[in-house]
Amino acid sequence: MLIDMTTYPxxxxxxxxxxxSDAQDRRRKxxxxxxxGEREDARWLRPAFWALLAVTAVVYLWDLSVSGYANSFYAxxxxxxxxxxxxxxxxxxxxxxxxxxxxxxxxxxxxxxxxRLFGFSSFSLLLPQALMAVGSVALVWGTVRRxxxxxxxxxxxxxxxxxxxxxxxxPAAALMFRFDNPDALLVFLMTAGAYCTVRxxxxxxxxxIALAGVALGxxxxxxxxxxxxxxxxxxxxxxxxxxTTWGKRxxxxxxxxxxxxxxxxxxxxxxxxxxxxSRPYIGGSTNNTxxxxxxxxxxxxxxxxxxxNGGGGGGMTGGTAGGSFGGSTGLNRLFSSEMGxxxxxxxxxxxxxxxxxxxxxxxxxxxxxxxxxxxxxxxxLLVTGLVFSYMSGTIHPYYTVALAPAIAGLVGxxxxxxxxxxxxxxxxxxxxxxxxxxxxxxxxxxxxNPTWLPWLRWxxxxxxxLSAVAIVMGNLPSLRKLVTVGVLAGTxxxxxxxxxxxxxxxxxxHTGSIPSVGPAGSSSxxxxxxxxxxxxxxxxxxxxxxxASGSESDGSDSTSDSEQGPGGTPPEGMxxxxxxxxxxxxxxxxxxxxxxxxxxxxxAAVNGSQSAAQLELDTDTAVMAIGGWSSDxxxxxxxxxxxxADGDIxxxxxxxxxxxxxxxxxxxxxxxxxxAANYASTTVGGQTVYDLxxxx
Length: 696
Fold this sequence. Notes:
Elements: H1 18-25, H2 30-36, H3 45-61, H4 72-83, H5 85-90, H6 106-118, H7 122-147, H8 153-168, H9 171-176, H10 183-200, H11 206-223, H12 231-241, H13 246-273, H14 290-304, H15 337-343, H16 347-361, H17 369-390, H18 404-420, H19 425-446, H20 454-473, H21 481-494, H22 496-506, H23 589-596, E1 602-607, H24 609-619, E2 623-626, H25 637-645, E3 649-653, H26 666-678, E4 679-684, E5 687-695
Parallel strand pairs: 1-2, 1-3
Antiparallel strand pairs: 3-5, 4-5
Helix pairs in contact: 3-7, 3-8, 4-6, 4-24, 6-7, 7-8, 7-10, 7-17, 7-18, 8-18, 10-11, 11-13, 12-13, 12-17, 16-17, 16-18, 16-19, 17-18, 18-19, 19-20, 19-21, 20-21
């Protein structure tokens, strides 16, 4: 018999209540509870959770070094941070602190600490990212389980397990949690914020909501304003669902806002107050201030375009089409091309779960945990999804990994609520709709790569649709058991496509600025080719299932991610054009020896951050990136002349066309012309090199 949950009471018990004390006495000890769960839990539930984490860890750590240094831009900054605490604090691209990366440094801090602990290598660089995947799965599991606790112990745990699995099986997650971009830490911190918000609800805890603010503050220090897109959902949930008075809810939100400002603002204020002449240039800014980076390049420029951001909907002329941008703006953006393959496998099911889940909870108390869970995950998905859909500035498909916890939370929470209400028409139809639409949409996505496992899409489609039919037929009294069979089979078939694509993603080397999901040789529905990747760094540690490699790619690896061509906004837009190599190229041994022998502050200067980053990784020296990315106005010709006069720069490596993306400004051209007029050139390993210690 189904319990009517419409007016389900939410008991309030005092800490001194004897009944509450007796209940606590019956609980297992904390350590036993951690591994075995509560006494009333089915014995297999908590071990299943640990098994999920173990499988996630194995999959995400296996052959972790296959991608080498992944994005050399961030890898070089990590390498710099292992040599200089100043570079660590500011997020400098080079250990001599000429210019920073174009993001705040929180994600670099984590990777630098790992590299300092284990030694700088591909594995130590990417290890924290993979572990954040495990942590994100655990946090989503814990959040969903708490919001479903009043629905039933088994239902809550199964819904939580499903949600955790969906996070791990999302292709965008399989890509970015094995890559060195900031998105892995961003997702982990936003998920931690969601967990803390839910923990704050039962008693309106100021401590937990303050911790949520701290998590989002550090999310801001990871990717600035993108880390705050979940703020409306978290604030709304606490405001309407915290079990305390309205006044205390407002105070709690003010405390959370204060903790967020402190957690995010301390670094911003420190950089703002630091004398500009004694710190690196703030990469990505137009005036060497962190506030310009916050509100310009990484802020409103992302939404409306400009401030160094390309348009999000335009096509590219030459190079990669669709791989660096998200396609035309609109509601269909998340479902089309590369974005669809990265995140949309279960997006339709999540939307169904949100709508029908709210129907199932009906007019329950505002503080009902299940309703709060739906609002939290739904608000996260809708706000972030709409921003991604209509951004006119730079956006790339892998940004959508930020939606993975929300989609997983809705599938787990909504699916569990519909299962609990399976005796009702809305419950059965909701389950059938989630499974049927997932099977059909998975079939559509798999058709993007029709030669890859061609049988899989038909198995998924047929199995999913038959399962949905079985659930509908369960409406007949004599066929009630078909509902259970249909849900179990439908869940299995529905998860097949996204899981297979995620696993395929983990087996492919991903390098460069614009990684994409899918199996080796997959075009992912896009056009354009890549130039190859950086390969596995010499002496890199293999990690589980991996092996060290002493060689680098020759640039012809067809499985690496494309990144060349004009246009876009590096390092997350298109790069190349500076004529000095960069990602996908190998520094000649002669040039390596030349730079390694230099004792100057910067062994060399080169146009563009990507070329500088690759040289730093190959030679383990500091290299000045003239113009940074997107033609940052540094250094001026006068500043460059002063550096040379002081003996701070050993060599100048000329670009083939007077500059390109990153260093492609008139200043960069003027610097190259001044060097050519005053210093003699030699050819080293096919590169034109000027020795700045000797004039003509």
